[in-house]
């Protein structure tokens, strides 16, 4: 996982045609000629280092970003001055779609580790999609998937126990790693436990206690940030609230 997720030696010279994540990104249904047209508008940025900001709440919406490798988190300021982590972004996922409606971004996005992204100028993407309906449909699918995932996640959080929330989070990350071609049963969590707790509305002590409980129950194996799923179906049952380890 670590080697697969490493930044290539020359991220500025990558191309959509050779990117192993292109089946997850917008050029999914494009032919070779159309793929060249799409590739021509992409801007490959220098990799972000851990803690570097991709954009913040004062940045105008001009680009979408596709995560080539690494991971990011999005934080939104709350009324009482604290920040809530609303999203984590993994390889193959698009960042910035939520800025389209307002012309600005709802919060700050920063790198959790060394991360490479492709910057896609939205005005050029919009013009190109007029001539490439497959590209337009791919953009709609990406928007729809983000809405679906957000609503599904809110349903998982609403009224669920701390145990169920963390189990849901681990299952969700497993599915997302599987979608981008990584192992769904053994993966490294790029985010700290404090970030997971912030995202789930739980104390970091609760996250650590539940990780230990899951491990003691034989559901997962934990080695620092590396997670091995041992009993995925049982963990999914905990996530759905069908069973509890306290029973």
From TrEMBL:
Query: SMART domains of this UniProt entry?
Result: cNMP, HTH_CRP
Do you know which Gene3D superfamilies this protein is assigned to?
Answer: Jelly Rolls (2.60.120.10), Winged helix-like DNA-binding domain superfamily/Winged helix DNA-binding domain (1.10.10.10)
Organism the protein comes from:
Chromohalobacter moromii
Superkingdom of source: Bacteria
Domain HTH crp-type, first and last residues per copy: 160-233
Q: Which PROSITE patterns match?
A: HTH_CRP_2
Listed SUPFAM superfamilies:
cAMP-binding domain-like, Winged helix' DNA-binding domain
A Pfam family that the UniProt record links to this protein: HTH_Crp_2
**GO CC, any one term:** cytosol
Keywords tagged on the record = DNA-binding, Transcription, Transcription regulation
Task: State the protein's name.
Answer: Fumarate/nitrate reduction transcriptional regulator Fnr
According to the record, the segments passing through the membrane are: none
CDD domains xref list? CAP_ED (cd00038), HTH_CRP (cd00092)
GO molecular function terms attached to this record: DNA binding; DNA-binding transcription factor activity
């Amino acid at each position: 996982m670590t080697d697969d997720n490493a930044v290539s030696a020359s991220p500025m010279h990558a191309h959509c045609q050779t990117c192993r994540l292109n089946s997850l990104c917008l050029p999914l249904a494009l032919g070779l000629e159309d793929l060249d047209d799409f590739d021509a508008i992409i801007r490959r940025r220098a990799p972000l280092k851990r803690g570097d900001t991709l954009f913040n709440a004062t940045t105008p919406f001009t680009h979408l970003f596709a995560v080539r490798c690494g991971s990011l988190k999005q934080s939104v300021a709350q009324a009482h001055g604290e920040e809530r982590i609303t999203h984590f972004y993994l390889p193959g996922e698009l960042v910035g779609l939520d800025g389209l409606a307002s012309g600005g971004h709802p919060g700050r996005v920063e790198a959790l580790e060394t991360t490479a992204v492709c910057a896609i100028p939205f005005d050029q993407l919009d013009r190109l999609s007029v001539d490439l309906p497959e590209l337009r449909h791919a953009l709609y699918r990406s928007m729809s998937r983000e809405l679906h995932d957000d609503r599904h996640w809110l349903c998982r959080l609403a009224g669920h126990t701390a145990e169920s929330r963390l189990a849901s989070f681990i299952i969700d990350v497993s599915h997302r790693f599987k979608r981008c071609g990584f192992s769904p049963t053994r993966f490294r969590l790029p985010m700290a436990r404090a970030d997971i707790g912030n995202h789930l509305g739980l104390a970091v002590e609760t996250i650590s206690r539940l990780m230990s409980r899951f491990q003691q129950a034989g559901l997962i194996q934990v080695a620092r940030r590396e997670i091995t799923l041992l009993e995925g179906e049982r963990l999914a049952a905990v996530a759905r609230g069908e069973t509890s380890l306290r029973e």
